[in-house]
Design goal:
heterotrimer; A: mainly beta; Ubiquitin-like (UB roll); 5-stranded mixed β-sheet; 5 strands; globular; C: alpha+beta; Alpha-Beta Plaits; two-stranded antiparallel sheet; two-stranded antiparallel ribbon; 6 strands
């Protein structure tokens, strides 16, 4: 089992078009973003199960984490 | 005219005369509606030099072609007037249900002129329109009055009100509607209050004529489907604009203690998840919107209902005042809403006063005993009331806006009056974000973000870069976002869900029977942009580059702490951004539209330069 | 088939009402729709959605037997037979069967599903009616 990371929108440009990445559980989301070269500054938030979680959240095995691209604001 | 109601209601408050006239087709052709129609009417009907609070100023209340139709976000409308806060152009937008109801009653615009001798409200029920005595309602807050009028007239009536702040001519009074929505900025509520118009109550039972109904419905349903399938729909619906609080805090954009910093040490206690968990009751949306941003909330701590806070109020009544309790922010929001104050301007004014107090420039005598330190939520509540009622020296001073207050008090306090053109800046700290700074410098109402939200662009290409491309980005956004304000619809379906811009021109073509392209629409938007610029040129003696000046804090003082610690934008950099901007806009070095630009946009004859 | 609604998800946007009027009349007029949104503000701050439950009370009470069921077992009013006596409008427990001054007869929900298509929060859905 692993953690599934789903980059949304233009974040996929950072992951070579991949919209689904499997990573080993253990690191925080912030560390996982570094691992896959997604700059934190363009991440609006991180979602688990429809709810925002902080970037220092440590995903468990089998969890799916959606990484939201920052959109256009208010 | 398919897509439009086809007539305007003209209300003379001085003599009580109400007439209808056809909506001028050529004006619609050139200016679309809502914000565009408002700008045209302001230019042609309000004489140069009119006193914003006097009988010669008018308040134009306009719907757009998409308003009230089956289209995602078809629920917006425009209030345009000469601003009592800035002395220039004011155009404020509001959602809710009002725009649709006005259109169903059969009006593209309601023109308010003159001044009523006594408090009145405007009653519209399809073809019936009359001014009714509002003496009994004078002094009432927005929720209280909306409920009362719905009880008296019928739930179907849509209500817009001014609160005590508008009655007392606070310079940033707002117009409230639908239990939590406002036309907030620039003092549109002040003008309505000055005219002694306490409320507008509308019911409409008509439909909207559509040129090609089947095609329009087909396009609309496709657009709704796209919204329903949007990746971010669930998260956006859950949190609304509050979602952006954490990102702003992390990226030095969350205004903290009067924009001294872009990061707030208590930030995490006002992020979206805490907000949702603690107080949110219902996702509340505007007419036709598939992605309701409104978060109707209940605070147990203060026993109040409020629609909000949304991000702007979270910033301006929260971090900008050093307040880190979401329920205290909700209470401040509710007070502003009930009293009828723009939360952004009120927050900016209070933050200025807090900084003055902490620096010893205002003492406890002048604050009428309030311990006006950053973080003192109780003091904030008290001061909001005093501003709305113009009570006490400070309340009355802050009611004039931060630019005027700082000019009065002096002692260097102008340096921390965070405004452009006299309008208090909204909730994005711009020490280190040159496009966003330019956006605030050049927005046509003053320091407001809704014309161009460029801060993510700054972060993706380099925050402190000063390039023609950045100016081009701001200009692009200033054409697209206010276009929605002229169409009478919301921009957030595109901005937040990524709904394609490709729907708008085909929808307009099917709706009106007139062939529209996206380029046409942008061209009209650029025309409106230049017209609102010319309104400033006409109304403000010596209007020019200085009026686009950034707040000095961002070009002189380093941010304190957080991501942008130590950063600010050198003043020459801000001016160079302005140079690139003026050049690309076809304006001269002083920011005045050149004759050939006005010619190209078909404005030369209208503005007679 | 009948329409169902989850009040808790309704945001009060009224897109459903516009879709309904376009379906029934080809008109963009939410005041002519076979479902209703009832807002409860300022307190408790929620929306209620009244939909046709296909209960059949309208058909039962109609004195001229003008209301029948179609192939989806949704009730409909036969325009040729309706006398606009309003008995069904008075009887409807949801208050959704309706007429307007410019209409010649009474109209009700035919479970077309257009409202479902434009409901962003997915507060509406259509499925086979639960048998009582």
């Amino acid at each position: 089992m692993a953690v599934t990371l789903i980059p949304t929108g233009m974040l996929r440009e950072y992951t070579g078009g991949q919209d689904r990445l499997e990573l080993a559980a253990g690191p925080t989301v912030a560390e996982m973003l570094e691992e896959v070269d997604i700059p934190p500054a363009v991440v609006a938030g991180v979602v688990r199960d429809g709810e925002l979680v902080p970037k220092d959240y440590r995903p468990r095995d089998g969890e799916t984490i959606r990484v939201l691209v920052i959109m256009g604001g208010g | 005219m398919d897509g439009y109601a086809g007539r305007m209601l003209r209300v003379n408050l001085s003599d009580g005369d109400i007439t209808t006239e056809p909506t001028p087709e050529e004006v619609i052709h050139d200016f679309l509606g809502a914000r565009g129609l408002g700008a045209y009417l302001l230019w042609t009907e309000v004489p140069q030099g009119a006193d914003p609070l006097g009988p010669d100023n008018k308040l134009f209340i306009s719907t757009g072609p998409l308003s009230g139709t089956l289209f995602p976000g078809a629920g917006k409308m425009d209030f345009t007037t000469k601003s009592p806060l800035t002395g220039g152009y004011a155009g404020a937008s509001v959602g809710g249900m009002l725009t649709a109801e006005i259109k169903y009653a059969g009006y593209d615009s309601i023109i308010l002129e003159g001044t009523s001798p006594k408090p009145v409200y405007l009653y519209i029920d399809d073809n019936a329109a009359e001014l009714r005595d509002a003496e009994a309602y004078w002094g009432m807050g927005s929720f209280a009055l909306e409920k009362r009028l719905k009880d008296e007239l019928g739930e179907e009536f849509q209500i817009a009100t001014v609160g005590p702040a508008g009655e007392n001519l606070v310079k940033y009074a707002c117009i409230s509607h639908d239990f939590g929505r406002q036309a907030g900025r620039g003092g549109v509520g002040t003008v309505m209050g000055a005219k002694k118009l306490k409320a507008i109550a509308v019911r409409g039972s008509g439909g909207i004529p559509i040129a090609d109904t089947a095609e329009f419905a087909r396009i609309a349903k496709e657009a709704y489907r796209a919204c329903k399938e949007a990746e971010l729909l669930d998260v956006w619906t859950r949190y609304g604009t509050m979602m952006v609080t954490s990102w702003c805090d992390e990226n030095g954009a969350l205004p903290t203690r009067n924009f001294q910093s872009g990061s707030f040490e208590q930030g995490s206690s006002i992020y979206a998840p805490t907000f949702r968990e603690k107080i949110v009751v219902t996702d509340k949306g505007c007419f036709g919107c598939p992605c309701p941003c409104g978060k109707y909330s209940y605070s147990k701590k203060h026993d109040v209902y409020v629609e909000g806070p949304e991000y702007e109020t979270n910033g301006m009544m929260g971090s900008d005042l050093g307040v880190g309790d979401i329920e205290d922010i909700a209470k401040a929001n509710q007070l502003c809403d009930e009293l009828g104050l723009d939360t952004i301007s009120a927050g900016g004014a209070i933050a200025w006063a807090m900084e003055c107090y902490e620096k010893g420039i205002l003492d406890r005598d002048q604050t009428d005993g309030l311990d006006l330190r950053f973080g003192n939520a109780e003091a904030t509540f008290a001061l909001i009331e005093r501003i709305a009622r113009r009570e006490g020296w400070l309340g009355n001073l802050l009611a004039e806006g931060v630019k005027h207050a700082a000019a009065e008090v002096g002692q260097g306090s102008e340096k921390w009056a965070i405004h452009v053109k006299g309008m208090e800046q909204s909730a994005y700290d711009t020490h280190d974000a040159t496009s966003m700074l330019l956006a605030y410098m050049t927005a046509d109402v003053g320091a407001h973000h809704n014309r161009a939200w460029a801060i993510t662009y700054d972060i993706s290409v380099g925050r402190d870069l000063v390039t023609p491309e950045k100016a081009a980005k701001v200009i692009e956004l200033q054409h697209i976002r206010p276009l929605m304000d002229a169409l009478g619809c919301c921009r957030l379906q595109w901005v937040e869900l990524g709904m394609s811009l490709d729907y708008y021109a085909p929808a307009m073509t099917a709706l009106t029977g007139v062939e529209y392209s996206w380029e046409n629409l942008l061209h009209i938007s650029e025309r409106v942009w230049n017209l609102t610029r010319m309104i400033w040129v006409r109304e403000v003696e010596g209007f020019g580059r200085e009026w686009d000046a950034p707040p000095s804090r961002f070009v002189e003082e380093p941010a304190i702490g957080g991501t942008t610690d130590g950063k600010f934008t050198p003043p020459e950099a801000a001016q160079r951004m302005l140079d690139y901007y003026y050049e690309q806009r076809g304006w001269d070095d002083d920011g005045i539209p050149r004759p050939e630009t006005l010619e190209r946009l078909g404005l030369a004859e209208l503005v007679e330069v | 088939m009948r329409l169902y609604a989850d009040n808790a998800k309704c945001s009060g946007c009224r897109a459903c009402l516009v879709a309904c009027s376009l379906h029934l009349f080809g008109e963009n007029n939410p005041k002519k729709a076979a479902l209703a949104i009832v807002p409860h503000f300022p307190a408790p701050g929620t929306f209620e959605v009244n939909v046709c439950t296909q209960c059949g009370e309208c058909a039962t009470v109609c004195p001229v037997d003008a209301i029948h069921q179609n192939e989806k077992r949704a009730y409909y009013v036969d325009p040729g037979e309706c006398t606009l006596c309003m008995a069904c409008v008075d009887e409807c427990p949801e208050g959704v069967i309706f007429t307007r001054p410019d209409l010649d007869y009474v109209w009700e929900c035919d479970a077309c599903g257009d409202c479902v298509d434009v409901c962003g929060p997915s507060a509406l859905w259509i499925t086979e009616r639960e048998e009582v």
